[in-house]
Every structure is written in structure tokens, then in C-alpha cells.
């Protein structure tokens, strides 16, 4: 198949019918969550109809230490994915949370792995596959108290704020600096390795910091009192 535009891919996925029977789960408050399981979602992403076969590729984005989960100061975490389908690329993130949509403190490997499957479904939903399951107006009538599908936060309860690239750079830099202050490199060479990791992290996020050199000079100066000074 030739490369698709985002609107063309959306048009293909928009026509995929929901399975006749949805899975369901009940939260501690009695709210019913209806969803399509992960494997069926993946299969339909590749073969949305009898005439169409799509190449679906994805990569879970890692932090500067190579971890699949991105941890916050309160020990909660999120997972991030970059997905590519016939020339269309999209990124999505999702907190590691329980069935009540509450972020899990110090999640274990099983909880992180479940969130990785869920964020893949979320990314596909944002590309058009089963999008109606997130929509307050379009959601199918499958019972009272129906919430969002694919085990995600209900769309009507989720506030999405699109940051500018400059804000994303600032947030990223604030995060890596806070992490470096908490666990500073032990050597000057280690500091330079860390700076290379920061630069790679910007590239992985598709960000450009026009003030990177000046910012890194300040980074070196601010970290110097916190670390060893052996040049090894």
C-alpha cells in the first residue's frame, strides 16, 4: 500500500465496526467499563477490512536511562509510544493506573506492561480505530453507566492541554535537571555522558532547543558543587 495521509487512515479505521460483544469491567464505584481487548484491537489495526492490509509498527519511548516507564517525583509513572502506520506517525502517553483510573504508586512490571498494551490501543484510537468508544456523543448504547473503552480515562473527564515546543523543551529540561540534582554524576566524564543523553532525549521527542549549549553550560556550573570532580 502507498503512503496514507492521516485523514485517509482515519477514514479506513472509522469504518471498522465494533465487535458484537464488548468486554466489560466494573470499577469500585460500580461504573461499567466496556472495551475491546488488546489483541483484537491489534489484529483489526493490521486488517481493518478484507481488502486492506496495513503495516503497523510501534516503539515504546524510553527515558534517558532506557526505562519503558517515565517516573515522576511522587513515584507514579506513565508510558509513551510512537506508532507508525503506512507513513502516518502518532505519539501517545498514558499513566500507569488501576481500574479506577488512579495512578499507581511504584507500579510493578506487570502493571507497567498492561499500561504499554493500553497505550498502544489509545494511540490507535486517536488514529481513528474505535474512536467512538471515547466520544460522549457517539458512544454506542451498550448499557447504563457506560464509560470509556480500552481501559482508558473517559474522554469527557480528560483535559488535554497541547503544549508548545518551547514548553515541552522547558518541561523536559526541568525534569532532567531535577533528576540530575537528586542523583548527580560522579565524574566529569559522567556529566558529559549525561549531557549526550539529554541531547538524544530531545531528538527522540522531536524537539530542538535553540539554547542547548548555553543551557548545558549552566547545567555544568549548577551541578559542579553536587558531584565529584575526578576527571575519569
Label this structure with key terms.
Enolase-like, domain 1; two-stranded antiparallel ribbon; 6 helices; 232 residues; 6 strands; alpha+beta
Order of helices and strands: HEEHEEEEHHHH
Low-confidence spans: 142-161
CATH architecture of the largest domain: 2-Layer Sandwich
Mean pLDDT: 80
> How would you sum up the global shape?
globular
Give the quaternary arrangement of the chains.
single chain
Biggest beta sheet summary: 4 strands, antiparallel
Look up the CATH topology of the largest domain. Answer: Enolase-like, domain 1
Mind telling me the C-alpha Rg?
21 Å
Structural class: alpha+beta
What separation lies between the terminal Cα atoms?
Answer: 52 Å
> Could you estimate the helical fraction of the residues in percent?
25-40%
- CATH C-level category of the largest domain: Alpha Beta
Q: How many distinct domains?
A: 2
Strand content: 5-15%
Number of helices: 6
Question: Using DSSP, what is the number of strands?
Answer: 6
Amino acid at each position: 500500500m502507498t503512503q496514507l495521509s492521516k485523514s485517509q487512515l482515519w477514514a479506513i479505521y472509522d469504518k471498522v465496526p465494533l465487535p458484537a460483544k464488548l468486554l466489560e469491567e466494573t470499577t469500585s464505584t460500580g461504573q461499567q467499563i466496556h472495551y475491546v481487548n488488546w489483541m483484537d484491537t491489534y489484529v483489526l489495526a493490521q486488517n481493518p477490512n478484507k481488502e486492506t492490509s496495513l503495516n503497523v509498527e510501534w516503539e515504546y519511548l524510553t527515558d534517558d536511562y532506557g526505562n519503558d516507564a517515565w517516573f515522576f517525583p511522587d513515584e507514579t509513572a506513565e508510558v509513551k509510544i510512537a506508532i507508525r502506520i503506512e507513513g502516518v506517525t502518532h505519539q501517545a502517553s498514558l499513566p500507569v493506573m488501576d481500574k479506577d483510573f488512579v495512578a499507581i504508586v511504584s507500579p510493578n512490571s506487570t502493571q507497567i506492561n498492561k499500561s504499554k498494551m493500553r497505550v498502544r490501543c489509545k494511540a490507535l484510537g486517536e488514529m481513528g480505530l474505535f474512536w467512538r468508544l471515547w466520544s460522549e456523543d457517539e458512544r454506542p448504547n451498550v448499557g447504563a453507566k457506560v464509560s470509556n473503552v480500552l481501559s482508558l480515562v473517559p474522554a469527557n473527564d480528560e483535559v488535554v492541554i497541547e503544549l508548545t515546543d518551547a514548553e515541552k523543551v522547558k518541561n523536559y529540561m526541568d525534569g532532567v535537571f531535577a533528576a540530575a540534582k537528586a542523583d548527580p554524576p560522579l565524574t566529569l566524564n559522567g556529566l558529559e555522558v549525561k549531557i549526550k543523553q539529554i541531547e538524544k532525549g530531545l531528538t527522540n521527542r522531536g524537539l530542538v532547543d535553540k539554547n542547548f549549549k548555553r543551557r548545558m553550560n549552566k547545567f555544568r556550573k549548577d551541578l559542579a558543587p553536587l558531584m565529584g570532580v575526578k576527571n575519569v
